[in-house]
Specification:
Blueprint (H helix, E strand, L loop, with lengths): L3 E7 L2 E5 L4 E3 L4 E2 L3 E8 L5 E9 L6 E2 L2 E2 L9 H14 L3 E9 L5 H16 L5 H8 L6 H6 L2 E5 L5 E6 L7 E7 L7 H7 L6 H20 L3 H21 L7 H13 L5 E4 L5 E7 L3 H8 L6 E7 L3 E5 L2 E2 L4
Parallel strand pairs: 7-9
Antiparallel strand pairs: 1-6, 1-16, 2-5, 3-4, 5-10, 5-15, 6-9, 7-8, 10-11, 12-14, 12-15, 13-14, 16-17
Helix pairs in contact: 1-2, 2-3, 6-7
């Protein structure tokens, strides 16, 4: 038979209302609502590019050029296998997965899962998108953010679903500086498994759910600055909880920068977000980027300029390049 392949790309994500705690670790189901954005480097694409190939030929499954263990607990085959029978009704052959991350600082799991989901939805155009998102969560719990792009909210506990509430164009006058610190990133499951142990966690659930309600109203009014002000307050609440369960994400070096931001905010508009990694994300208006960069350079030499980005898209089928989908 002739081989058929589809390639899709998706941008990585960062939280706005941060997710912590999983009610079902296998299905990656949450205890509370959350929100996030897709991002890309400002001057070049940050994407996971994923290709599904269906062929009788012998191939390897790879991630960033390395052979992939299909039995890994977060393997993309957890998603592929759910649709394998449907795909093989239309296309006979073995299904091979190849994915590469380009210019991604953090959030690559979301991007990879979303790009894979986009490939599946192209192969199976009648697939239920809500069911697809729930299945994508088995690979990465916030994949819906990357699938839809822009600013999204994810609501629901037993059947959490994501929808876009602002597209990326609404953020064109704003930039995000990722200030990277040299310590090792902790696994996200350290947060998910430990946060629920705290007595404060019930309060955190209420805070996160209320923040999503507020966020939707701010988005309706296009109040972009207030959206990022909310994100900063949510960051503080989230990492206060982490400190109670001895999951140290914010190091002393990161804390010094965050405290300095509060002083600078008296002069210019500037906020921060810290998710689960080793970056402090500084959000400001485009006109103030160089001023903020100079401050950041006093704390780290590894700084990336980011922008809010759109959702997953098919970029190639067979030998045909597609503009968008």
């Amino acid at each position: 038979m002739n081989s058929i392949k589809v390639k899709a790309s998706a941008h990585p994500t960062m939280g706005i209302v941060l997710l912590g705690g999983l009610s079902d670790p296998a299905l990656r189901l949450p205890y509370h609502n959350s929100a996030g954005i897709c991002y890309s480097l400002a001057d070049r694409e940050s994407v996971a590019e994923t290709t599904l190939t269906i062929t009788d030929k012998k191939m390897e499954n790879t991630l960033n050029g390395e052979t992939l263990d299909a039995k890994d607990t977060r393997s993309p085959f957890k998603l592929i296998d759910l649709y394998k029978e449907q795909i093989n009704r239309k296309y006979s052959g073995h299904i091979y997965f190849n994915s590469v991350n380009r210019n991604i600082i953090s959030g690559s799991s979301d991007a990879g899962a979303a790009a894979l989901g986009k490939c599946i939805s192209w192969l199976l155009p009648d697939v239920d998108k809500n069911d697809l998102e729930l299945n994508m969560r088995k690979v990465s719990e916030s994949a819906g953010r990357s699938f839809y792009g822009g600013l999204t909210v994810t609501e629901g506990i037993e059947k959490p679903l994501t929808r876009q509430i602002l597209d990326e164009s609404k953020f064109e006058n704003y930039r995000i500086l990722s200030v990277v610190f040299p310590h090792k990133r902790k696994p996200s499951d350290d947060i998910h498994f430990n946060q629920p142990k705290s007595e404060y966690y019930k309060k955190r659930i209420m805070n996160a759910d209320q923040n999503v309600i507020t966020l939707k109203e701010l988005a309706r009014k296009n109040q972009i600055k207030d959206i990022f002000e909310l994100a900063m307050r949510d960051t503080d609440d989230y990492h206060y909880l982490n400190s109670l369960v001895d999951v140290k994400i914010v190091t002393e070096e990161m804390k010094v920068l965050m405290e300095e931001i509060h002083e600078i905010r008296k002069k210019i508009w500037l906020t921060y977000i810290v998710t689960g990694g080793n970056s402090v994300f500084l959000v400001t208006e485009e006109k103030n980027v160089e001023r903020v960069r100079n401050v950041a350079l006093e704390h780290s030499r590894e700084i990336y300029l980011l922008k809010v980005a759109g959702g997953a898209r098919v970029i190639q089928t067979g030998d045909s390049n597609l503009k968008t989908e």
